[in-house]
Every structure is written in C-alpha cells, then in structure tokens.
Amino acid sequence: MPEQLLSAEGLTAGYNGVPAIRDLDLSVGAGEVVSLLGPNGSGKTTTLLALVGLLPAMAGTVTALGEPVPTRRPHLLARRGVRLVPDDRGIYFGLSVREHLRLARRRPDPARTAAVLDRFPALAGLQSRKVGLLSGGEQQMLAIATALLGGPKVLMVDEMSLGLAPKIVQEMLPAIRELARDEGIAVLLVEQHVELALAVSDRAVVLNHGRAVLAGTATYLLAGRDRLESAYFGADEFAATQGA
Ligand SMILES: Nc1ncnc2c1ncn2[C@@H]1O[C@H](COP(=O)(O)OP(=O)(O)OP(=O)(O)O)[C@@H](O)[C@H]1O
C-alpha cells in the first residue's frame, strides 16, 4: 500500500453552518490517482475546498503530508507541495505562457520546465502567446503545467475536462496518470467524464447528496456499471432514467 499523502476522516464541511458533505473518508497515496465522482451539487468541489482548508471542517480531520491542513492558508499548503487547480483554472490572462510558467517557481528551473512541457507538447510552441488568447484546452494544460512546475506531492484538479473536447481530455488524463506514477504524486481528480476518469484512476469515490455512496478500485467500479449508475444518479433518479 502506498504512503498516504492526503487523507480525510469523518470530514463534514459546508456553508453558513449547513453541511454540504458529511462524514467523508478519503485517502490518496503516493503515485495514486483517485477520482471523486458524482452528480451536480453532490459536494465534489466542497470536498476539494475542505481538503485545502479553504472551508474549515465542521467535523473530522484532514491531513496532508502527515500534518493537519491549516484553515484558510492555501498558499502555505502550496509551498509544502499540496496544490489545487480550481475549476476556473486560476490562471492570469494578461501574461504570456512563458511569463506564467516563470511565476511557478521562485528560482527558474529550465530542466523542470522542459520536463513538464514534454508532457504537454502543445504548450511548448506557444510560449510567447498571451494566456487569454489560448484555447480552453491550452489554458487547462497551462494551469496544470504551472501547478506541476513546483514539484507538487499532492495535486487536486477540479473538473479538468470542463468545456474541453473529449479528444483533449483523452490526451491530458493519461499525461496526469503518467506523472503521478513517475513522480509519486498523489492525484485527486474531480471529473464529470466518469469512464474517462476511471480509465486513468486506481480508485474512485462517488458522492451523492454530500455522502460517499460508493467507493472502490476503478476495476471494481467499471465492472459494475449498474451499481455505478445507481450510486451516481441515486436509486429514484436512476429508476426514472430507466422509465420505471
Ligand atoms: N458558496 C456556497 N454557499 C452555499 N451553498 C453552496 C456554496 N457552494 C456550493 N454550495 C452548495 O453545496 C452543495 C455542493 O456543491 P458543490 O459545488 O460542492 O457540488 P459539486 O459536486 O462540485 O457540483 P458540480 O458538479 O455542479 O460542480 C450544493 O448543494 C451547492 O448548492
């Protein structure tokens, strides 16, 4: 079993005193890719925000790299190597790609930059382009490349595939999978593309109404399509989609 770099136990978090996720257990080990799945509003983004301490835990604990995650100090956590790429990508549109990549490290590291750009070759030829003029897929690659330049130990990506063509997603997800394995990064993906996510994941957790309703290895989840759909949609909604 890999060393657990990120874990939540009994995590409850939400907004204005109202829980949006309840009693969640989750862990991601070195070199592992775990997907957090579930329908709209099931609590995936809330979970990520709680995991980086942007939302304080109402109950339970969050541990990253063996230490409790501090509340509302994501920059401190990022310095320790725990990075979240948010669903709006968190990038600066006025910079060029080259300038953006330079922001990622206090001291430039050309070898690391070259190694990361190797994983996203489409970006390599766009270094002079303004970030705001990149396509959605290129912007997403830049957001992830920027996070990777710092050499993260834990990487969380919220809805990487949002607004992207499936072909781009099919290229990017395996690149993230390889990076996790090669560099021992613990990766937590929030994804709407269930099958694409499971294809590159070791394990997944399905949330519904803020609770983990199904968890297991990707192989187990892919082998039980009905079980997955039922957990994903909820029994009643699933029945409705079946015309019952
Ligand atoms: N800032 C907020 N204030 C109050 N409630 C919120 C806030 N953000 C999210 N919620 C609520 O918390 C619940 C979980 O939302 P969350 O964004 O975590 O779901 P999600 O699974 O990421 O959804 P999606 O797939 O649509 O992005 C939803 O009921 C949502 O309406």
Automatic annotation (TrEMBL):
Per its UniProt record, what Pfam families does this chain match? Answer: ABC_tran
User: What molecular functions are annotated in GO for this chain?
Assistant: ATP binding
Alphabetical list of PROSITE patterns matching this protein: ABC_TRANSPORTER_1 (PS00211), ABC_TRANSPORTER_2 (PS50893)
Residue ranges constituting the ABC transporter domain according to the UniProt record: 6-234
SUPFAM superfamilies linked to this entry: P-loop containing nucleoside triphosphate hydrolases (SSF52540)
The lineage's top-level taxon is Bacteria
Keyword Ribosomal protein appears in the UniProt entry: no
Keywords on record: Amino-acid transport, ATP-binding, Nucleotide-binding, Transport
Say which family it is in. Answer: Belongs to the ABC transporter superfamily.
Q: What is this protein called?
A: ABC transporter ATP-binding protein
